[in-house]
Amino acid sequence: MSLQGVERSAIATVRAGLSLTPEFRRGLLGTLALAVVATAGKVIVPIAVQQTIDVGLGGPRPDVGYIRSAVIACAVAVLVTAFASYWMNVRLYKATEASLATLRERGFRHVHDLSVLTQNAERRGALVSRVTTDVDQITTFMQSGGLTIIVSTGQVLVASALMLFYSWQLTLLAWACFVPLAFALPRFQRWLSAAYTQVRQRTGDVLAAVSEAVVGAAVIRAYGAEDRTAERLDAAIDANRAAQTRAQRIIATVFPLTEIMAAVAVAGVVLLGVRLGADGDITAGRLVAFLFLITLFIAPLQVATEVLNEAQNAIAGWRRILDVLDTPPDVADPGPSGVETPRGPISVSFQNVGFAYPGGPPVLHDIDVDIPPCSRIAVVGETGSGKTTFAKLLTRLMDPTSGRITVDGYDLREMRFSSLRERIVMVPQDGFLFDGTLADNIRYGKPSATDEEIRRALTELGLADWLENLPAGLDTRVGQRGESLSAGERQLVALARAYLADPDLLLLDEATSAVDPATEVRLARALEGVTRGRTSVTIAHRLSTAEAADEILVFDKGRIAQRGPHALLVAQPGPYADLHANWVAAARS
Ligand SMILES: Nc1ncnc2c1ncn2[C@@H]1O[C@H](COP(=O)(O)OP(=O)(O)OP(=O)(O)O)[C@@H](O)[C@H]1O
C-alpha cells in the first residue's frame, strides 16, 4: 500500500497546508499589519533625509527647528519599526510553533491509524521523517522565509513607488541595472534547489549509515567489520560535506553579484543624478534619498535565492505531509456507531476467508474455522504457510480480501476498536517493551493497575520467585526495547501484560528463541496461567503446546491442510506427522 499523493499546484498545496493549521491563519492579519508598519517605517529615514537637505538646509540659513522635527520623526520611526518587528516576530513564532505542533500531532495520529500494510518496514522511516524533518522545513520557511517574502515584496514596492515619485529617470536606470539579475536569479535558484536535493539525500545517507552502525553494533563487532563500517560512514560524511559546500558556494556567489549590481546602480544614479540636478530636474535631497532607497530595493534581492529555495522545500514538505493525511486508514474504526459486544466467553468464526498482500499473490485461501468459547487452538505449519497472516486478520491489523470473520456473530469490521482491543489481545513473539520499569511495562496491559495488582498477577502466573530475584523488583529498568532482560524474560513480561489486560481471547505467537531451562519452566507455567479459563489461539513452535491444544490447525501453503487433536493428527500421514517427527528429532538431538 503506498501513500496517496494528490497532484497539487504550489498555491493549492500552500492553501491546503494552511487550512490544516488554523492557529497560523487566525493571527495572520495582525502579523501582516505589523509587517506593513515595519516596512513603512523603513522609508521614513530617506524621506527625512530628503526633507532635511531640501527644506532644512535649502534656505539661506539652516532651519534648525525643521531639522529637529525631521530627526525626531526619524527616531520615532526607528523605534516604531523596531517595536513592530519585535512584536511581529513574537506573534509569528507563537503562531507557527502552535500550528506546527498541531500538524505534527495530526500527522502522527494519522500514521498510527494507517494499517500495518501501509506502515510496512520500508515505509516506516519515511513516515517518521514526514512528521519530523518535513515539518521542520515548513517551520524554517514560515518563521523566516515566508515573512521575508512578504516584507521584501512590500519593501521593493514601497521603495519603487517613492523612487518613481522622486525621479522616474533614475528609477528606470536603477531597474535597468537589476534586469540581468532578475534573469539570473531563477537560474541560481534552480542550481541551489538541485544542490539542496543532493544535500538532503547525502544527509539521509549519513543518518542511515550512523543508525545502522549503532543498531547493528553487535553484529559489526562479531564479524570484525569495524573498519568497513567506519569507511562507509566516512564516505557518507564526506559526500555530505561536499554537497553542503556546493550549495553554500552558490549562495556565496549570489551575494557579491548583487553587491556589484548595487554598486553599478549607485554609480549610474550618481552620474545621471548630478546631470539631472544641474538641469534642475532633481534636488540634492532627493538624490541622496534615492541612494538610500536603492539599498532598500537591493536587500530583498540578496536573499531572494535562499528564500525561494526555502519556499520550495516547505512546499515539498507540505506535499509530503498532505500525502500522509490524504491516505485513508484502510482498517477504519467504526467508532461510536460500531458494535460493542459484552465481555465473556467469546466465539470466533472465519468464513471462507482469503487474503493477499497488496500487489502480491493470495497467501490465505478458503479459511473456514470456528473457534468455540474457552477452547485452546494451536496453529502450526511450515514457515511462510500463513500463520502470522491468520493472526493479524484475527486481531484486525488488516481486513480479509474475501470472506468474513465474525466475533460472537458480528462482523469484525463492525466492532468498535475499543471493544475489540479489550476482548482480543495478541502477544507477539518478541513483545515490544518500552524504556521504563518492569511495572510500567506490565501496567501497559491495564493502565489503572496498582503495584499490588501487578505483584498479585505475577504470583498467579507462578513468577513470584523471578520477581524476587530481580535487582530492583518491579522497579527494575528494562532498557530500550527491553534489552536489559533476556528474550525469555521479555516474553514473561509480555505474558504478564496480557494477563493483566484480561482479554476473552488471547492470541499468542510462541517465541522460537531458545531460553534457559529455568525460564523455560517459568514460561510454561505462565502460559498455562494466562490461557486458563479463556479462549486461546497459539502459533505453536513447541510440541507440548500442540499436544495440550483442543484442536490443532495445520497450515500448509495458505490452506488448512489438517485439523483435529494431537492424538488424531499424529496417527495419520500428513504435514502434522512430518512436523511432529521434526520436533521429536530436535528434542533428541
Ligand atoms: N507484509 C507482507 N507483504 C507481502 N507479503 C507478505 C507480508 N508478510 C508476509 N507475506 C507473505 O505471506 C506469506 C505468509 O506469511 P506469514 O508470515 O503469514 O507466514 P508464517 O506461517 O507466519 O511464517 P513464519 O512461521 O516464518 O512466521 C509468505 O509467503 C510471506 O512471504
From TrEMBL:
<feature type="transmembrane region" description="Helical">
    <location>
        <begin position="165"/>
        <end position="185"/>
    </location>
</feature>
<feature type="transmembrane region" description="Helical">
    <location>
        <begin position="284"/>
        <end position="303"/>
    </location>
</feature>
<keyword id="KW-0067">ATP-binding</keyword>
<keyword id="KW-1133">Transmembrane helix</keyword>
<dbReference type="InterPro" id="IPR036640">
    <property type="entry name" value="ABC1_TM_sf"/>
</dbReference>
<keyword id="KW-1003">Cell membrane</keyword>
<keyword id="KW-0472">Membrane</keyword>
<feature type="transmembrane region" description="Helical">
    <location>
        <begin position="250"/>
        <end position="272"/>
    </location>
</feature>
<dbReference type="InterPro" id="IPR003439">
    <property type="entry name" value="ABC_transporter-like_ATP-bd"/>
</dbReference>
<dbReference type="GO" id="GO:0005524">
    <property type="term" value="F:ATP binding"/>
</dbReference>
<keyword id="KW-0813">Transport</keyword>
<dbReference type="InterPro" id="IPR011527">
    <property type="entry name" value="ABC1_TM_dom"/>
</dbReference>
<dbReference type="GO" id="GO:0140359">
    <property type="term" value="F:ABC-type transporter activity"/>
</dbReference>
<keyword id="KW-0547">Nucleotide-binding</keyword>
<dbReference type="InterPro" id="IPR003593">
    <property type="entry name" value="AAA+_ATPase"/>
</dbReference>
<dbReference type="InterPro" id="IPR027417">
    <property type="entry name" value="P-loop_NTPase"/>
</dbReference>
<keyword id="KW-0812">Transmembrane</keyword>
<dbReference type="Pfam" id="PF00664">
    <property type="entry name" value="ABC_membrane"/>
</dbReference>
<dbReference type="InterPro" id="IPR039421">
    <property type="entry name" value="Type_1_exporter"/>
</dbReference>
<feature type="transmembrane region" description="Helical">
    <location>
        <begin position="28"/>
        <end position="49"/>
    </location>
</feature>
<dbReference type="GO" id="GO:0005886">
    <property type="term" value="C:plasma membrane"/>
</dbReference>
<dbReference type="InterPro" id="IPR017871">
    <property type="entry name" value="ABC_transporter-like_CS"/>
</dbReference>
<feature type="domain" description="ABC transmembrane type-1">
    <location>
        <begin position="29"/>
        <end position="313"/>
    </location>
</feature>
<dbReference type="GO" id="GO:0016887">
    <property type="term" value="F:ATP hydrolysis activity"/>
</dbReference>
<keyword id="KW-0997">Cell inner membrane</keyword>
<dbReference type="Pfam" id="PF00005">
    <property type="entry name" value="ABC_tran"/>
</dbReference>
<feature type="domain" description="ABC transporter">
    <location>
        <begin position="348"/>
        <end position="582"/>
    </location>
</feature>
<protein>
    <submittedName>
        <fullName>Putative ABC transport system ATP-binding protein</fullName>
    </submittedName>
</protein>
<feature type="transmembrane region" description="Helical">
    <location>
        <begin position="70"/>
        <end position="88"/>
    </location>
</feature>
<dbReference type="GO" id="GO:0034040">
    <property type="term" value="F:ATPase-coupled lipid transmembrane transporter activity"/>
</dbReference>
